[in-house]
Amino acid sequence: MPDACTVTGDPTSGNRSAVTVSLACAFAVLAITHCTTDHTRRGYLRTLAATYAAPPSHPVVIVAGFGVTRLLDPVRNRYAWGTAHATVQRRFDDDLDLPIDDDGNIGRDRLVPRGYVGSRGPINIGWQLEEGLRKFGGYVPGRDVYPFHYDWRLSARHNAQTLADFIERIRRGGRVDVITHSAGSLVALTYVKLAGGGDKVEHLVLIAPARSGVIDAFRVVVRPERFIRRVFTPEMVSTWPSVPELLPDDGRFIVDERGRAIDFDAWKAEDWTRFIALDAQHRRAFARSLDNARRLRAELRDTPLPAGVKLTVIAGDCVETAGRVIARADGSFVFYPGELRPEEKMLERTLFELGDGTVPVSSATASPSPVLLLFCDGHQGLAADPNVHRALLRILR
């Protein structure tokens, strides 16, 4: 049986259509064999990797973002987050909500960070970045590159101190390089600017950093995330200090179906009552987190980066990304272009700007950066993009 590009008959006998098909197939084969795909780029990087000497002596620390680290219940020896089992089980002795007292003070539970969500694959941001350095840069996990697993529910201040302790254990007396993704940027910036890490870090690479916040922080509160049978309920999320820390700097980002601004300020706890119903205890906890988050963001904004830290920002710039939200009269929201109704299409340019689908370019580049690299990729895709891996190697080596 002939294949798709086989021409039967004699092309010299006047069968012009057969000749045309043959030429078209030849050009198609040339295009396919010479086009530059991600697979081809990875091949180039492997070839280039063979020319590298050993990696620099200072280690690389990878700080991934929100939800990427698994959380283990050490008493039950079961994961409450980050495994297939944890997505189908509904009841846990110690669930993801953090304990709060009557005054709204948020405490700690017994869950501990342990490894990444999934061992490998597109959802495992930390693994993708570590693998890129290993395959294409010769970095050996546990010697040259280290994942920082942390409790992503807790505040950036808490996790920055944990990062400080971690870096002290692995830095061998010298400096380290730090690569972050998404919300991990907030932890690293807090460490470098506010927790004494400025003289411990040489290169700080922020990939898809939420430097002036993201709409997703609002979405995860008012539209509960679902993972098969697991749900991030508003009550649960209201106990996580990390979520308010990721809200957009300008808390006034909600409009109605006609594009008119709604009187809502995300930094005012009382304004949230129109969108979520919390009991008094959870309202106090959420209000406390909002106040703490706003102070943290102001400190980060007003504190300059230490002079010895070499900063690079890597961001996506070709996906429509929410900068504002429609809150409809029926209680529903618009967070993505595909959710617009026909009569709302005219608001698309008002609601969305270029970014990676989660972080707008304007947020990633909110503060000056000596080096800014833009790539056409999505939020998670940036961590697996061979062009990004190549950029990382040029920066670090």
Give a brief rundown of this model.
The protein is of the alpha/beta class and 397 residues long.
CATH class of the largest domain: Alpha Beta
Shape designation: globular
Strand order of the largest sheet: 5-1-6-7-11-16
Strand content: 15-25%
Order of helices and strands: HHEEEHEHEHEHEHEEHEHEEEEHEHEHH
Straight-line N-to-C gap: 53 Å
Poorly predicted sequence stretches spanning 5 or more consecutive residues: 1-20, 27-33
What is the percent of helical residues? 25-40%
Number of strands: 16
Q: What structural category arises from helix and sheet content? A: alpha/beta
Count of individual helical segments: 13
Q: And the CATH topology of the largest domain?
A: Rossmann fold
Give an overview in words.
This protein has 397 residues and is an alpha/beta fold. The chain folds into 2 domains: 1-33, no CATH class; 59-396, Alpha/Beta hydrolase fold, catalytic domain (Rossmann fold, 3-Layer(aba) Sandwich), CATH 3.40.50. The chain is built from 13 helices and 16 strands. β8 and β9 form a beta hairpin. 39% of the residues are buried. Mean pLDDT is 89; it is low at 1-20 and 27-33.
